[in-house]
Specification:
314 residues; alpha+beta; 6-stranded mixed beta barrel; two-stranded antiparallel sheet; 7 helices
């Protein structure tokens, strides 16, 4: 009788051990899932002071040299620059357009470009910061188009708010400022490219943080100036902000029709207009976070069901 009781206890102990092991495994995996969603939720909660509502990328291209409408005399550097500025003025004056920006090298929201530079400060080489570089034309308004701000969104800024008189003037964001100058104000200070020590830059402005991907934390940014001329036109991108009172779809239809009919200047012509909201949404989707979130959610639900079944010994 004692032997039978002992065998019964051992069998129950083995059964309970397997249940305990299953619970431990499910607990560990569930903890990983909860931690993942906690981090993602925290990242989502961080503000991004970037506004792409009612903003559009205007794509301009040129006729190839073998095209029937190509004009050789319009292809000189001087004429190319003149024609491009005429295009900018035409777009800027279009009804409903409130701001226009020219940037370079895919520096706009929703771009997959990720050009990092490592910056340090001359007075303390122990401090450095990796920043994503954004190249803009200081005679247009990148900050106005994309709603950049200071003081945590309370003060909207434009490109004219900063002194771009020196060719080495740059604007950085708060994250870059806090990493490079954690103990003081970064305004007016100098920084240098660690990989090109002769490149010294002066900070003339600090803007609020923005995100490249909504599920990630803000990244350190540095805005460099690059004046528009014949040598940079091929790398230029035109961005506009329109009056929020105007319906986006109605504006796009009328704008595209007008540009197709009238924006043929020199060898340039209008190609298309794209919504930055859609570009940012596509970029977020391609980042893989949506798929990863769904996968983690399904796995967490599966393991939680296992916990309930184990508790009730189903």
């Amino acid at each position: 009788m004692l032997k039978a009781l002992f065998i019964q206890l051992m069998n129950r102990k083995k059964s309970n051990a397997w249940i305990a092991l299953e619970l431990l495994l499910v607990f560990c995996v569930s903890w990983y899932m909860v931690d993942y969603f906690f981090v993602i939720s925290y990242n989502y909660s961080l503000p991004s002071y970037l506004n792409t509502n009612h903003t559009w990328q205007v794509n301009i291209t040129q006729y190839p040299s073998d095209h029937p409408e190509y004009k050789e005399d319009e292809n000189t550097p001087e004429q190319t620059e003149t024609n491009y500025n005429r295009i900018l003025n035409y777009i800027r004056s279009y009804p409903g357009v409130t701001d226009l920006s020219v940037s370079f090298n895919r520096s706009t929201p929703g771009s997959d470009r990720f050009d990092n530079k490592n910056f340090g400060i001359p007075t303390d080489t122990s401090k450095s910061c990796w920043v994503r570089s954004i190249t803009i034309d200081p005679l247009s308004d990148y900050f106005g188009v994309f709603g950049f701000s200071e003081e945590n969104g309370r003060k909207k800024v434009s490109i004219q708010d900063y002194e771009w008189g020196k060719p080495n003037s740059v604007v950085i964001n708060k994250l870059a400022a806090s990493q490079l100058f954690p103990d003081g104000n970064a305004m007016g200070k100098t920084i240098f490219d660690i990989n090109r020590t002769e490149q010294i830059y002066e900070i003339v402005g600090i803007v609020d943080n923005t995100k490249r991907i909504i599920a990630e934390r803000p990244e350190a940014l540095c805005f460099f100036q690059n004046p528009l001329d014949a040598s940079t036109i091929q790398r230029a991108e035109i961005s506009i902000r329109i009056d929020p009172e105007i319906n986006d779809k109605i504006f796009l239809t009328a704008f595209a029709q007008d540009m197709e009919n009238n924006l043929r200047i020199g060898n340039f012509y209008f190609l298309s207009a794209e919504s930055y909201n859609e570009k940012v949404e596509q970029h977020n989707e391609l980042s893989g976070y949506n798929i990863s979130n769904r996968t983690h959610l399904y796995l967490m639900a599966f393991f939680l069901v296992n916990v309930i079944l184990a508790v009730f010994k189903v």
